[in-house]
Design a protein that fits this description.
By secondary structure, this protein is of the alpha/beta class. It contains six helices and six strands, in the order H-E-H-E-H-E-H-E-H-E-E-H. Helix 2 links the parallel strand 1 and strand 2. Helix 3 packs across helix 4. The chain is globular, with a radius of gyration of 17 Å.
Length: 246
């Protein structure tokens, strides 16, 4: 199969997975509080734009079965708010639940929300690390064709995206997972200074259900802390991105 046909097949498989996942999520009767038990590292899930938390149910289930209490943020709904507002909702949830040593598990736009949270809204250092899957840390050239305001953050020229890309202090506490081909982020998800891991699968959505992704997430969720707790001028909490991201 030629590269063009292979990528076309990946596109089709990716959207088929996304449609199926949305349908399964809307029919699922599983509640968010079903995953709160566990003695291992707490995990907070941040899905991508237009995704409910059920979109990441395969990974949520795997983490919970491995002993991790998994928190979702119902207030995010389908993640249509701007990055700053969404990050505030996540920060409020983490504080209200009294969580510490948190690992964020994020998909796509969720990775930008998670990094903003780590940079600007985590003075108490409740967030230990983030595992980001297919996150557009450098934006996507396809954003120029997107007219919906909530998608402006994906532009490589977006002020907040550019500012966060310059702030590399927290990158060492981020693992960026990505596949062989991402139809939505041709720039890729490599993040300077982070733990960048390419998986042997493809797609922007379908990668969430791939066994290799599940294994990588479980492995990363059990990694030791990246460094000593507490705010640090070199590590986080000093760089505040610009006030708008639209």
């Amino acid at each position: 199969m030629t590269t063009a046909f292979r990528r076309l097949a990946w596109w089709i498989q990716d959207y088929a997975y996304a449609v199926g996942c949305q349908a399964r999520g809307s029919l699922s009767r599983t509640t968010a509080d079903s995953f709160l038990s566990g003695e291992r590292t707490p995990v907070v899930v941040i899905p991508g734009v237009f995704e409910s938390w059920q979109f990441m149910l395969p990974l949520i289930t795997a983490l919970h079965r491995a002993g991790h209490p998994v928190h979702v943020v119902p207030a995010l709904k389908r993640n249509r708010l701007d990055v700053r507002s969404s990050a505030r909702l996540v920060a409020d949830h983490v504080a209200a639940a009294g969580l510490e040593g948190v690992v964020i598990l994020a998909h796509s736009k969720g990775g930008l929300i998670g990094k903003y949270l780590m940079l600007a809204l985590d003075a108490d250092r409740r967030i230990e690390r983030m595992i980001a899957i297919c996150a557009p840390f450098a934006g996507s050239r396809y954003a120029r064709y997107l007219l919906i305001p909530s998608l402006h953050i994906f532009s490589p020229r977006n002020a907040l995206t550019l500012q966060m890309a310059k702030e590399e202090a927290v990158n060492r506490r981020i693992t960026s997972l990505y596949g062989l081909f991402d139809p939505h982020i041709p720039e890729g998800s490599i993040l300077p200074g982070a733990n960048n891991v390419q998986l042997p699968s493809a797609g922007h959505f379908r990668i969430l259900g791939d066994p290799a992704t599940r294994r990588a997430v479980l492995e990363q969720a059990d990694q030791p802390p990246a460094g000593p707790h507490g705010p640090s001028n070199q590590d986080h909490g000093q760089a505040v991105p610009p006030p708008a991201d639209g």
